[in-house]
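Protocol step 4 of 6: structure prediction from sequence.
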Amino acid sequence: MPKRQTKVIYGIIVLVLFSLIGLELFKTPFVMANQLLADNQTPVVFASSILASPTPYAELPLAANVEQSLAEIITSQSASEEANLNKDYCIDVPVVTYHHIQPLEMAEKLGHKVLTVDNQMFENQIKYLSENGYTALDAHDLVYALQTQTPLPEKSIIITIDDGYDDNYTYAFMVAKKYQFIMNFMIPTGLIGKSGYMQWEHLQELKESPYATIYNHTNSHAPLGYITKDNIINEVTTANEQLALHLGLENKIVTYPYGAYDDEAVQTLQELDISAAFSTDNGRTHCLSNIMKLPRMRIGNAPMNFYGF
């Protein structure tokens, strides 16, 4: 047999031997882990210590049966924690809603007066909140607080501005930056770029600001309580795809256009892994049990103390 072939064969034999030795060394911790599982003990700490170890074990994948067992334990723990949550847990915090923010004389000419708060009144309202110690929060802060049953800071407020009108960028965003107040913009993505609405460049600027957040208000501003399940899915998923494509955002919060929802809409959003949804139902008490239909308070052309602030 030629020397070159002999060396190749020897080399293969050596590699096989090393592999077998390595496997035997590596099997021991997983035998122990499986024994723990057989004894109804939780090996999470043990497995974590292996993964955190600087030894070669940390560089090797978990055995398939142990990985599956750990996944089942973690899933079981998550389900147990969720079951232990108090479904009646509630937070009292105002979530206020606006639409158009612009001079009233302009609104009258455009036929927008019903949904408009005068831009100077809007600034006075935000100034009042700022001077009276209110903290403006991201809408996600409320959702997280409900999910973890964690209280929010005293005198918190969540400001939502619906529909993505161009005046939201021109007037509301300017006030948000001036008073360093977070504002949550609820965007119907299919209307962006159309006359009277913001452009994607405007939304990019909002996204980059610490004083603005952007959430799903469907694609075409369709009333989810009055359309088919397939259309609900299309409206919500298309909007999320557009937010991801143009802004790199991952979204799990929806605001119902026109405040329209029904049981099917709620169930469909949950199936789409939406974690919370805002309605136009009037109120300021938010409970874990109604996280898919959170109420809001509509604000008009009056000082904030008129609304109980």
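Step 5 (inspection) to follow. The CA atoms of residues 165 and 197 lie 4 Å apart.
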